[in-house]
Amino acid sequence: MNLGVWLHRQAQVNGEKPALFLGQELVASYGTFHDRTARLAGWLNARGIGPGDHVAIFMKNCPEYLIVLYGIWYAGAAAVPINAKLHGREVAWILSNSGATKIFTTDGLTQSVRDEAPDIHCIEAGSGEFEEALQTKPVAAPYAAAPGDLAWLFYTSGTTGKPKGVMITHRMLMGMALTYLNDVDGVSPEDQALYAAPMSHGAGLYNLMHVLKGAAHVCPVSGGFDEGEIFDLAEHFGRVHMFCAPTMITRMTSVARQTGRTGRGLRTIVYGGGPMYVADIVDAVEHFGPVFVQIYGQGECPMAITALSRHDVTDRDHPRWRDRLASVGRAQSGVEVQIGTADGAALPVGETGEIMVRGDIVMPGYWQNPEANAKTLIDGWLMTGDLGVMDAEGYLTLQDRSKDVIITGGSNVYPREVEEVLLEHPQVAEVSVIGRPHADWGEEVVAFVVGDASDKDLNDLCNAQIARFKRPKAYFRVPELPKNNYGKVLKTELRSRFS
């Protein structure tokens, strides 16, 4: 089924209900949202775009983003969302690899596409051509897509090498949305989805369950993440859901404490996309209250591997609450999760290995990349490349990416374990632990620290909690950690300093 059907159904019965906002300004009701979407689809169809075609979206967060996304689906094509922070050359590579023939942009991004990919048809939101498209004769209904048809071609963040195109089908996204409602959070027509993280990524995927339920969609006027703006919009609308990377939550907590903001109006903050350290989420819950839910997923199984419930994030009475809070929760309803060896053999409870996922929400493969498919999909299981351990109750704790494990003197050190300890120090704001080449031990543990804690204090903290071989042998103070466009720390960049 084409996911655009959910929008069409809302327009049929709730056409007057507010749908799209730019800040506090109403831009479109559900009826208008559907009408503009259907007209854009008619415009695409009239220019030969339909089933089997790919259309790129290189836009900052704005209401038009959703009109373009659903317009592509109504037309029967697949969307190729591209992070608005990418360089024009990176965008050109994705356009070439995906085979997209048209790209929708926003002001400030158009020229970089025209400079680096002059042959592609570029349509800027708000331009005369875009407005002309919205006046085209509308399609009668969304194209009747099959469940296995491609809906979203997601390009991985590419921290090493070129990004890979993850094929995400309508069936996968439907499973993700329905599983969300069962395992992550309920959605009501009175809610609002606030898009402060890039809509090209997980935040954008989460539009689906809000369209399904007829909730409102709010794009900040800034087009991105601004703590004060988020607090203002939450207070105005009153029932705000948003997706955040962990680094966004730590920033919101810091700003809220400095400015006296309480986060009133924030109903749910779903976090994921990177490591959330126990000290940081404890701090956030103490300030904002029980508004947090954690998810763990990958583009290859979008947002839907495990979930840590609102109760588990908030509970401080369970004897193992800290262990649970350090986990990423239990398997979501739409998938099976197990821990295995590199060749896919299952491991017993309590042993560390590669996290494996199977189910209808797992991708069919990477776009035109059979070599990567052979390494990643084994006997129906997605080999995530993440290392973890599962306890007897089914709680999964991430250790690290397999490539990030430090092997020193024949012993494995999981950087996250060391990072969790170092972050307990009140003068450590951020930290990243990596392995540095060592002539005798192969690697030695070192830490990049944002903060003023002394080496002695950090050593004492580690000596009290972890084995001495895991303790960093050197600390490097940095003003900030290098991150990619999704807020993930670039450990490859840190390692390059010792090349």
Main sheet: strand order: 2-1-10-9-11-12-13-14-15
- The span between the termini is 50 Å
- Biggest β-sheet strands, sense, barrel: 9 strands, mixed
Strand portion: 25-35%
Summarize the amount of helix as a percent range: 25-40%
CATH fold call of the largest domain: Rossmann fold
Ranges with pLDDT <50 over ≥5 residues?
none
What is the architecture of the largest domain at the second tier of CATH? 3-Layer(aba) Sandwich
Name the CATH superfamily classification of the largest domain: ANL, N-terminal domain
Total discrete domains: 2
Q: So what's the overall shape?
A: globular
Mean pLDDT: 94
What is the level 1 CATH name of the largest domain?
A: Alpha Beta
Number of strands: 25
If you had to describe this structure to a student in words, what would you say it looks like?
The protein has 499 residues and is of the alpha/beta class. It has two domains: 4-390, ANL, N-terminal domain (Rossmann fold, 3-Layer(aba) Sandwich); 405-498, GMP Synthetase, Chain A, domain 3. The strands form six sheets. It has a nine-stranded mixed sheet with strand order 2-1-10-9-11-12-13-14-15. Strand 3, helix 3 and strand 4 form a beta-alpha-beta unit. Helix 1 packs across helix 2, helix 2 packs across helix 3 and helix 11 packs across helix 12. The longest helix is centred in the first third of the chain and has 17 residues, at 30-46. The protein is globular. The N and C termini lie far apart (50 Å). The mean pLDDT is 94.
